Sequence to fold (109 residues):
Amino acid sequence: MAARFTRRVYIGDTPAEAWHIHNVLDQHGIASELRNETLFGATGEIPVLESLPEVWVSDVNSVAAEALIKEIRSRPEESAEWRCDGCGEAVDGVFAICWRCGAPASGSS
Ligand SMILES: [Zn+2]
Fold:
């Protein structure tokens, strides 16, 4: 009667985000279950806010899963924006120079 996955450890803004968490947990040997991800964007009587994708794990894995998710989310995105010293423009992390004024990225590796 008891469900195997009893702890909700994550609510994603997008299905891709929830899938990412699910995959990383899987890579670390933590079994998880995605819920609601197929409902996302579905037209119907379910409001979007109530159909956000969720990641559930079992009781024994909940602490490890939450720690892992915290770590994942504290990591800076590889394509995080940087702020141009020259003109103050927010530049996408994939660019090494400012697309607006041509100044090089400062403080980036
Ligand atoms: Zn600039």
